[in-house]
Each structure stands twice: as structure tokens, then as C-alpha cells.
Amino acid sequence: MEKKITTLLFDFDGTLLDTNELIIQTFEHVLNTHFPGQYDREQILPFLGPTLTDTFGKIDEENAEQLIAEYRQWNYDNHDRLAVEFDGVSKTLRQLKELGYKLAIVSTKRNEMVHKGIALLEAGNIFDTVIGLDDVQHAKPNPEPIYLALQRLNASKEEAIMIGDNYHDIVGGQNAGVKTAGVAWTIKGEDFLQKYQPDYMLQHISDLLPIVQGEKQ
Predict the structure, then answer these.
(1) Which of 156, 161, 162, 203 lies 20 to 30 Å from 175 when distance is taken between CA atoms?
(2) pLDDT in tens, 132-152
(3) Residue 123, beta-bridge partner list
(4) How far is it, in rounded angstroms, from Cα 63 to Cα 2?
């Protein structure tokens, strides 16, 4: 018999908090400063998801650290102005918490910025643990951060689901042996995410409730 879901692992950016515009404008700021006219919004979209080290290492390996520092400063300064929760997120998270589910963030961002976003969602007491870039050697799609979350939550992979807006989340979940759910509101488009064959595709965050309660298989 299939184990019931007790544990929900959420990506953060683009899944719970709409930071798409923040991230795009941050990349625009840094790249237009150093490489004027070379990157438009369409070319920036693939940079949403991978770590900054991966992205800037490919753009300009020699100056990657300086570019990352500039990115982080502008992103921090403009975070609360440009980031906003996706529809229904705070309400659904509170419902899941009240129902007794274990909730965690598994992000490729630094912990400081994840906590800044959680504060913006007014969800400080919702999550049982937060796994950020500072906690692991290998980011998603490597399964390490998901394994760490399960360990901290004392949960098995059979009872967990990874929810996210990018292929790192779906493939990372598959690599870790947990169920996966994509979010149709991903900036890369639902069709893009379907290619990675998540177990579920959420049209709204509240779709999680019937899934975890066993009403939707």
C-alpha cells in the first residue's frame, strides 16, 4: 500500500514567492552594466533556477565573484519592492500546517534571502526547517538538499513530495526518490515543466490539499 504524504518540500522562488520580476530586473541591472545590449529578458529566463555560481561562471568565469556580489546587493535592496506571494500561498500553507503536515523549504538561494522572503509572506512560524544554499555542497537537482530536509524532518522519501517551478525541483525530487509536483504558474510555462514528468501539476497552490489528503491520485 502506498504511503500517505506527510511531508511537503517546497522550492521558494517562483513557487511560493513571485520573485520572477525581481530576479529578471536584477540580472538586467548587472548584465547591462557589464555587457550592455547583450542580454534581453528572453535570454535571461534560463538563468532562473540555477545557482548564481553556475550562471555567472558561464557568463564570465574570471569576474563571476564580482558579478555575484553586485547581483546580491541589488537583489537585497529591491527585494521587498518587487517580490509578492502567488495567489493563495499563505492561506494554503496555514491550512497544511493546521492539518499537521511537515513543511520545509528546499531552495537554491542563500538562507538569508530565503528568510527575507518568508518574512514577506508572514510565514515565519510555518516551516519546520529551511534548507538553503549555505546548508549543502550540492544544489538541486542533486538530491543532497532533499535528503537533508528529510533527515531534519525525520521523514522517509516514500511520504514526501517536492513542489517546484523548475526542472531542478522535479529532477531533484526524482533523484531523491520522492513524489513531485510542478506548478503551472512557472514563468517557463507549464509545457516546459511537463517534459520532466512530475507526478502532479498544480494549477493553484490549493490543489495540494486534495493530493496530500489522498483524494486525488
Answers:
(1) 203
(2) 999 999 999 999 999 999 999
(3) none
(4) 50
Task: Assess whether pLDDT exceeds 80 at residue 217.
Answer: no
Of 11, 18, 165, 169, the catalytic one is 11
Instruction: Look up residue 195 and give its DSSP letter.
Output: T
More confident residue, 48 or 60: 60
pTM: 0.90
Q: Which residues are bridge partners to 99 per DSSP? A: none
Pick 7-18+84-212's CATH classification: 3.40.50.1000, 3.40.50.970, 3.70.10.10, 3.60.20.10: 3.40.50.1000
CA distances to 69, 121, 145 from 52, in Å: 10, 23, 17
128 catalytic per annotation: no
- CA–CA gap between residue 156 and residue 149 (Å, rounded): 10
